[in-house]
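Friendly challenge for the regulars: who can give me the structure tokens for this chain first? No prize, just bragging rights.
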Amino acid sequence: MRFLAVFVFSMSVLSCVGMGHDGCGGDGETPDCGHGKLNVVILGDSNTSIGGDDCDNPKGWNKWFKDKFAPASCKSYARSGATWTNTTATKYDIEENTGCISDDNVIYNQVNRLVKAVGSGSQAKPDLILVAAGTNDAWFASKRPKVFDKSAAEAFSVTGGYITSRKANGVVTLAESVRYGCEMLMSHFPDAQIILLTPLQSTAARADYIRKVGDVIEECARYMGLGVIRMDYLGSVYSVRERVKPARTYDGTHTSEDGARRNGRLVANMVSSMLQY
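First reply, four minutes later:
Bragging rights claimed.
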């Protein structure tokens, strides 16, 4: 069934590339039409943060996504080293920017930064939110010892309200943390469409962990009715090839400009085909 899902997504990409939107963007280079009213926000880890907060650095996929998708605005709140998974020491912290894994360098706090920015008027209320994270949950699993302790089914087995009624430091598995972060976004921005991107393949992280993280994220997205793009299956990074000679990355994990461009345009096409507006 996994291969069937990938084939369906791939066909969506081919359809979008072939037809474009109202005759625009079909060549893969020209910006798409029809997105000029959408305010986009992106959360994530280093492969997003290297594109810059304003999504203008060509080493990051978000720069190429913005150029192709052509939204009204596109802002990144990503931080290098971020994980989905919280720890027992995670607390509210919207100032820290360590550039490496830490208790507070989590998607939870990126959401907090976004909420404050919207509340202060420095950020337009998002219409579309992309979350591209999970690499560090797989890469540094030893620093997130309970990362795989619950499945998505177990994380969603407790009903009766949002999981955000609990404190963030009491939600320390990947599945629960994905639910927590997404339910925060859904409660603060009920009109926004949320799409999750699974981590790319990497020569540094275990392949089975990257796949397992992707599976958890995908399953959580389905429980919440959110979109998901399997970047480990559809992205431009193939870890076996990168081990021989880095091309789409510069270190086996972080994209080169070529890899970022391919991924950004892929995501733009995928998201275009998934829009509910």
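The CA atoms of residues 51 and 60 lie 4 Å apart. The beta strands are 39-44, 73-76, 128-132, 193-197, 227-229. Your move, everyone else.
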